[in-house]
Amino acid sequence: MSFFTINYTYDPAKDADAVRPVHRAYLRELYAAGSLKAAGPLLGTDPVRALLIVEAPDEAAATALSDADPMVTEGIVSDRSVIEWNPVTGIFAQP
């Protein structure tokens, strides 16, 4: 398993607040399943951006987790990147 960062940029013309409750419910499901390690908005960004850290077997699986996110399926996310991450220090570092 590997870690991936998923960066979202939200479309300012879309109503993210309307989708946020189902988005957060989806994130809670991912967290309970062990796939999501952390998520949240990047403060002070304009347009609004968010970061998710997921653990998945490969980039395709990490992307699939994001593909099912209501923020993505409802078109709130205007730009997204999925990048493999190798944490060497801290709580996500592999022993």
Automatic annotation (TrEMBL):
<feature type="domain" description="YCII-related">
    <location>
        <begin position="6"/>
        <end position="86"/>
    </location>
</feature>
<comment type="similarity">
    <text>Belongs to the YciI family.</text>
</comment>
<dbReference type="InterPro" id="IPR005545">
    <property type="entry name" value="YCII"/>
</dbReference>
<protein>
    <submittedName>
        <fullName>YCII-related</fullName>
    </submittedName>
</protein>
<dbReference type="Pfam" id="PF03795">
    <property type="entry name" value="YCII"/>
</dbReference>
<dbReference type="InterPro" id="IPR011008">
    <property type="entry name" value="Dimeric_a/b-barrel"/>
</dbReference>
